[in-house]
Automatic annotation (TrEMBL):
Family from the record: Belongs to the carnitine/choline acetyltransferase family.
Sequence ranges assigned to domain Choline/carnitine acyltransferase in this UniProt record: 2-165
Protein name: Choline/carnitine acyltransferase domain-containing protein
């Protein structure tokens, strides 16, 4: 429906730190965009799509590891902003930049809520024109809960859920049709 990348929030636990809460895994990356775009490019062969998927997974793992080890950007920037307010200093210029506001307007807020029981959790979007997307990977299936505000004409949780199902089926076909060397 949208055919574009957006600011995406995925929760990263900082529990390893005293009083640690969460930081942001910024799931959208150049690697993930290249992988997704490859599905709409008829010139891309399956092996190339798989290579792009591997690069996207590696990029996501790398940023996830940075986030859970306290090396992501969002809490550091929040700390800078709060420190300026506490010391009654002017807000640093980065916080007045339109790019900063755009980067914090999370059209997609996601979180894995793992459970060994077959349950579904749900939370709402964090912006009026966004989606909440909760998932629970199980051994042989994944439970999803997708939400959006009915008051927003641009979002439809059912449409997004259908698109995700279609994308997962595309991935399944790609993986089943493209044997990889075991070397």
């Amino acid at each position: 429906k949208y055919r574009r990348c957006c600011a995406t929030y995925e929760s990263a636990s900082l529990r390893m730190f005293r009083l640690g809460r969460t930081d942001t895994i910024r799931s959208a990356s150049n690697a993930s965009a290249s992988f997704v775009k490859s599905f709409d490019d008829p010139s891309k062969q399956n092996l190339e799509k798989l290579d792009l998927m591997e690069k996207a997974v590696k990029a996501h793992r790398s940023y996830t590891n940075m986030a859970i080890s306290g090396q992501a950007i969002d809490r550091h920037l929040l700390g800078l902003k709060l420190q300026a307010a506490e010391e009654k200093l002017s807000v640093p210029a980065i916080f007045r930049d339109p790019a900063y506001a755009k980067a914090l307007h999370y059209h997609l807020s996601t979180s894995q809520v793992p459970s060994k029981t077959d349950c579904v959790m749900c939370f709402g979007p964090v912006v009026p024109d966004g989606y909440g997307f909760c998932y629970n990977p199980m051994e042989d299936h994944i439970n999803f809960a997708v939400s959006s505000f009915n008051s927003c004409k641009e979002t439809d949780a059912g449409d997004l859920a259908g698109a995700v199902e279609e994308a997962l089926l595309d991935l399944r076909r790609l993986l089943e049709q493209t044997p990889r060397s075991k070397l």
